[in-house]
Write a structure and sequence with these properties.
It is built from ten helices and two strands. With 207 residues, it is mainly α. The longest helix is centred in the N-terminal third of the chain and has 30 residues. The protein is elongated, with a radius of gyration of 20 Å.
Amino acid sequence: MGKIDDKKKQKKAALLKAAYQLYTVKGIDNTSVSEIAETANMAKGTFYLYFKDKYEVRDSLVASQANMVFERASHQLDYLLSEQTPDSAEDLIILLIDTVIDQLSNSPNLLRFISKNLSWGVFSNLQIADLDNRNCMDIFDALLEESGKEYRQKELMIFMIVELVNATCYNVILNHVPVGLDELKPELYESIRNILYQFEIKEAIPV
C-alpha cells in the first residue's frame, strides 16, 4: 500500500505542477483538462481520478502556493527578528507583509496567479503547515496580541489590509505604475498603520 500511495501522490503532484505551468502562462479559462493531463504525461481519464475539474485544481494550487509564501515569510520574519527588535506589534505585521511583498516581487507569475485566484475565504482559512497548521487569521491574531491593544472587527480590519496590499502591489510590481515598489512601500505601510489605528479600541478619556 505504501508504494501505491506514493505513486498516487506523485501523479497528483505532477498534475498540479502541469496545471500551474499552464495557468500562469495561458490562464485558467484558456487551459483545458486535456492539456493538463498531456503536460503531465497522463491520460485525460487519469486526471479525473484526482480532481473533478480544472477549478478544483486551481483551488488546490492557490492554497498550496499561498501556504508556501507564508511559510517562507514566517522563516524570514524569524530571521529578521533575530537581527532586530521591532518597536511594536504593528511593526511586526508590516515586517511580515514586507517579506510577502518581496517574495511576490521576485516571482511575477506567482503574483498574477495568487492575486487573480486567492479569495478571502481561502486566505482566511489557509492553514500553514510549517506553523502547526494555524491559519492566516491565527497568525495575525498572535501578532496583534503582542501589542496589548484591543481591536474591533478584526476580520474586517485584516480583510481591508490584505485587499489594500493586493490591489496596490499588483500594478506596481507587474507594470511599475504609478510608482516603483520602493516608493510605494512607505505610503502603503503608513496606510496600514492608519487602518490599524482606525480599528483600535481606545480607552475613553475621563472628562
